[in-house]
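dumping this here before i forget
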Amino acid sequence: MTHRLYRSFQGLLLLGICVFLVFKAVNGQLTWYINSRFIPLTIFGIIFLALLAQTVFTEIKRSRREEQEHAGHDHEHDHDHDHAPASLNLWVMLVPLLIGVLIPARPLDSSAFSTKGFNANSPLISADSSQQIFATESEERTVLDWIKLFNYEDDITQFIGQKASVIGFVYFDEVLGENQFFVSRFVVSCCSADGFAIAMAVEWDDAATLEQDSWVLVKGTIDSIQLSDRPAPMIVAESVQPVPVPEQPYLFP
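structure:
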C-alpha cells in the first residue's frame, strides 16, 4: 500500500466518522449513546475530526502537486511501503463506524436486563438530591425520583396516596403478581455502556393488553410493594397510555 493510498483511506475514515456523528447530532440520537452533558465535548470532537480530515486531504493534494512539478525526477517517497502495522489503525477506525452504520440505533430496552439486571428499590447512587426531589411536585417526579425517595426517606407512608405520572417502557417479570408490570428506564452516568435499569411496579387491571418494551405514560396513585424484602414504590394506575419513545429515553443521576 502506497503512503498516499494509506492517507486517502485515513482521510475518508475521519470524514466518515465526522459525518456519522453530525447525523446522530442532527436527528437527536447522540443521547442514545452518551449523557447529554457530553454533547458540547462531542461537538468539539466533530470539529476536530473535520479539521484532521481536511489536513489529510490537503497533504494529499500537496503531494500530487509536487509530483507533477517534478514529474521527470526520480522520487521514492510514494513507492510501496510496508504499512501493515499502520493499516491496523484503519481497521480500528473502520469497525466502530461500520457497527454504528449497520446496526439500527435504538435505546436500551429489556433485552439488556439479562446482562445488566434491573433495580426496583435502590438506585445505586447517592442521596444528595433527595431533598430537592422531595420538594418537586409529585406528578413531575420520574421513576428514578420515586425510587430514590423510597430508598432514602425513613417515613415512606407520607408518599402513599400521592399522585404520580411517569413515563417508561413496559417490562413483565415473574416477581410481580397478576395485573402488574414494571415501568422501566435506564439511568446513564456517562454512556449507554454504564447504563443500569431501574423499574417501578404498576398495578393495572388491563396489564395483560400491554406489550413488552412498549413505552407508556402511567398515571395513578402511589402505594408500596415489597420487593427483595424491601419496600418499593408502586403506582396503582388510573390510566396507562401508549406514548412514542421520548427524545431523551435515559434518565441521568
